[in-house]
Amino acid sequence: MNDTTAIGILTGGGDCPGLNAVIRAVVKAGHMRGWKTLGFRNGFEGLLTPSRHVWLDYRDMGHLLTQGGTILGTTNRGRFASKTGLGEAQRIPREILDEAKANFHALGLSALVCVGGDGSLTIAQQLFEHGVPVIGVPKTIDNDLDATTITFGFDSAVCCATDALDRLHTTAESHNRVMVLEVMGRHAGWIAVSAGISGGGDIILIPEIPFSYDKICAKIAERESVGRKFTLVVAAEGARLRDGALVVADAGAKDREVRLGGIGSVVAREIEKLTEKETRVCVLGHLQRGGGPTSFDRLLCTRFGARAVDLIARGQFGFMVALRPPDTVAVPITEAIGRLRRVPADGDLVRAARALGISFGD
Ligand code: F6P
Fold this sequence. Notes:
Elements: E1 6-11, H1 19-32, E2 36-39, E3 54-56, H2 94-106, E4 112-116, H3 118-129, E5 134-138, H4 154-175, E6 178-183, H5 190-198, E7 203-205, H6 213-225, E8 231-236, E9 248-250, E10 259-260, H7 263-275, E11 279-283, H8 295-314, E12 319-324, E13 327-332, H9 348-355
Helix pairs in contact: 1-8, 4-5, 6-7
The protein binds 6-O-phosphono-beta-D-fructofuranose.
6-O-phosphono-beta-D-fructofuranose (F6P) binds at residues 14, 76, 140-142, 184-186, 237, 259-260.
C-alpha cells in the first residue's frame, strides 16, 4: 500500500500488560515509513466519538515499553459489546458499524489496528466485513485465543501468579496450612497450570478438568503422610466440580459476560471442613492484569506491533498477527475467533505436572 499516510489504533476489552508496548511499536514502525498514527480512546467506543481521538507522536513513546495499562483507555462494555459468553457472538447493529466506518473514513485513515482478545477481534472482524481495513493484534492474559501460540500479557500474568505462589509457599509452610490461590482464567486454565507448575503448586484446578473434593483431600492426606504438612492449591476462576456450576461474583447485565470469582473461597471452605486443616484463600484478581510487561511480553508486543505495520504496508487486511515460533505470521482473524484455545487435558503441560505428582483434583 503506497498511499498510506495515517493509520488508527485502539485497544479493546480488558486491559493487559503490554498494550502500551504494542502502541509504541506501531507508532514507531509507522513513523519509519513516514506515517502518522491516531489513537482512538476507550476501545471501539472511540470510533463513535472521534473527537476523543489523539494523534500519537513517536517522540512521546519513550516510556511506553514498560508502562502497564493502556494510554488510550479501554472498555469491555458499551455499544460494541459482541459477546455474552463462550462462542456466543452477536451481530453489532448496522447503524453502529455505519457510524464507525463513516468516522474512520472522515479522519482520512488507511487502516485500523485493533488490539484485543476474542471479543474485540470479533468486533474487528465485523468492522472488516463492513469495509474497514482492519489488522488484529492478539491480547489476553488468559492465553485462550486460537491461531497464535501465545497472546501477549499471558507471560506477565503468569509471572505475577508465580510470585504470589512463592510468597504463599513460605507462609503456608510456616503455619502448616492449606493455601488456595485463585487466579484468572474464565474458560481456560493456562495461567493456573503454568503458574502452578512454576510456583510449585500441589493441586491445580482448571476449567478443562472437573475436580472432586475427594481427590483434593486425598492429595492433601498423601502429603501429610510423608510429612508435608502444608499444601498449595491453585484454582482458575472458571474451575468447577464435576456437574458443578461456575462460581459467579456478579451475574451482570444481559449484554455482557458474567463476572466470575469466588471459587477459591468455596474450595478453601470445603477443604477446611473436610480435612480440619487451617485453610486460607488469596484472590490475585486484577494484580495479574496491572503493572508493566515482562521482558518476554515487551519483545512479543514489539514484534506484533512491527508486524502489524508490515501487514498494513502489504494491504493484508482482515488478518491478525500471531506467533508461530520462531516467527510472527499473519492469520485470518476468522481463524482466531469463536473457538477458544483451552488447555488440552492430556497435553504436555498437564502430563508434566502429573509426572511430578501434581493433582488436578480428578
Ligand atoms: O481478560 C480476561 C479476564 O482476565 C478474565 O480472566 C476475567 O474473568 C476477566 O478478564 C475480568 O474482567 P473485568 O474484571 O475487567 O470484567
